[in-house]
């Protein structure tokens, strides 16, 4: 049996009223008596009446929905961002349609094609690792779709962007390891062309420079899939630890890689921090429950989601197109635990 939602016509038939009377009563029109409004609203509530979103979108020329594209919902960082997005969107009467790119350029293009076909009012996106051609995003932007980038942004598109202070976060993590006596600090970062990777690498290099430690290119490694492909990560780590001069600490450049590297160390029976220290970007709520508890750079993901959504809704609801855009930078917090202690 097919479910069919109750309509204004159904309410009108049941109560012996005209559809226009029911419509006005639901809109709290002054033309309808208080008694009639009460009868109509009670019946509508009892029968779970909800306005037809398609009809509303045609009337308002809006779908009251926004699209969100992230790499992976299971990633704690992005799940917290989505919580922040929803905390604002639903309170403002917008539905949220979420898609995952799984770090694939082709998947991202398909996601955007689907979302555009649903007539979304705006888009929030953190671009995939594989994405180096942004024509699909430029096309939507040129057609007037409001877009806000968060975390991973596109410099060539002029719009609001909400990012983390990646450079300072990486700088503080690297300096912390140095202060704890570690000398050969490796960095394993996400895709080399990524905006995030560049910021984190800059912070890492500046920390070395400020502390008179020579930069060693052999200690810098990249994972094109951001740690989602464990075999790739394993190969990168094998190449790092096959050197004569091995690292004594590793700085991991993403949430997924931090957990993957910890898994690698356990598989090689390398004890953290006795044999190797580890610091990484991670928003995992279980980081302090691991053995040892992980030192992490924690990002304000929930606040990022909220801010990006506020900026997007501002664009959507603006009567005139705003050509002044924000590049909003949020701080990252170094949370020190056992994995970076010198034994």
Explain this structure.
The chain is α/β, with parallel strands linked by helices and 343 residues long. The protein has three domains: 8-50, no CATH class; 62-163 and 301-330, Response regulator (Rossmann fold, 3-Layer(aba) Sandwich); 166-299 and 334-340, Rossmann fold (3-Layer(aba) Sandwich). The protein is 42% helix and 16% strand. It has helices at residues 8-15, 19-26, 34-46, 53-60, 76-89, 105-117, 135-142, 166-179, 195-210, 230-241, 255-267, 301-317, and strands at 65-70, 95-100, 122-125, 147-150, 161-164, 185-190, 220-223, 249-252, 277-281, 295-298, 327-330, 333-335. The strands form two sheets. Strands 2-1-3-4-5-11 form a six-stranded parallel sheet, with helices on both faces. The chain has a six-stranded mixed sheet with strand order 7-6-8-9-10-12, sandwiched between helices. Strand 3 (122-125), helix 7 (135-142) and strand 4 form a beta-alpha-beta unit. Helix 1 crosses helix 2, helix 5 (76-89) packs parallel to helix 12 (301-317) and helix 8 (166-179) packs parallel to helix 9 (195-210). The protein starts with 7 loop residues before the first helix and ends in an 8-residue tail after the last strand. The mean pLDDT is 90.
Task: Give a quick rundown of the structure.
Keywords: DNA-binding, Transcription, Transcription regulation. With 343 residues, this protein is α/β, with parallel strands linked by helices.
Helix and strand arrangement:
Layout lengths: L7 H8 L3 H8 L7 H13 L6 H8 L4 E6 L5 H14 L5 E6 L4 H13 L4 E4 L9 H8 L4 E4 L10 E4 L1 H14 L5 E6 L4 H16 L9 E4 L6 H12 L7 E4 L2 H13 L9 E5 L13 E4 L2 H17 L9 E4 L2 E3 L8
Parallel strand pairs: 1-2, 1-3, 3-4, 4-5, 5-11, 6-7, 6-8, 8-9, 9-10
Antiparallel strand pairs: 10-12
């Amino acid at each position: 049996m097919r479910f069919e939602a109750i309509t204004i016509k159904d309410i009108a038939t049941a109560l012996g009223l005209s559809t226009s009377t029911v419509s006005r009563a639901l809109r709290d029109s002054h033309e309808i008596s208080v008694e009639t409004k009460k009868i109509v609203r009670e019946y509508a509530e009892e029968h779970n009446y909800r306005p037809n979103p398609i009809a509303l979108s045609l009337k308002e020329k809006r779908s009251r929905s926004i699209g969100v594209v992230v790499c992976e919902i299971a990633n704690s960082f992005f799940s917290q961002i989505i919580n922040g997005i929803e905390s604002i969107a639903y309170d403002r009467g917008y539905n949220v349609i979420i898609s995952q790119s799984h770090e694939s350029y082709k998947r991202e293009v398909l996601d955007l094609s689907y979302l555009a076909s649903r007539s979304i009012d705006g888009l929030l996106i953190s671009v995939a690792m594989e994405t180096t051609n942004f024509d699909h995003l430029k096309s939507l932007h040129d057609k007037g779709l409001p877009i806000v980038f968060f975390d991973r942004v596109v410099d060539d598109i002029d719009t609001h962007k909400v990012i983390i202070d990646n450079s300072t976060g990486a700088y503080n993590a690297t300096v912390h390891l140095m202060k704890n006596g570690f000398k050969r600090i490796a960095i394993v970062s996400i895709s080399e062309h990524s905006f995030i990777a560049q910021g984190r690498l800059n912070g890492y290099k500046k920390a070395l420079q400020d502390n008179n430690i020579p930069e060693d290119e052999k200690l810098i490694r990249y994972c094109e899939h951001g740690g989602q492909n464990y075999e790739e990560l394993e190969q990168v780590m094998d190449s790092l630890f096959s050197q004569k001069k091995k690292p004594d600490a590793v700085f991991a450049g993403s949430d997924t890689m931090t957990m993957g590297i910890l898994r690698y160390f356990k598989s090689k029976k390398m004890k953290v921090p006795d044999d190797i220290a580890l610091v990484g970007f991670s928003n995992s709520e279980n980081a302090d429950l691991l053995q040892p508890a992980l030192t992490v750079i924690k990002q304000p993901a929930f606040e990022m989601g909220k801010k990006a959504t506020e900026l997007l809704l501002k664009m959507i609801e603006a009567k005139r197109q705003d050509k002044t855009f924000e590049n909003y930078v949020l701080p990252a917090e170094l949370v020190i635990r056992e994995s970076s202690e010198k034994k």
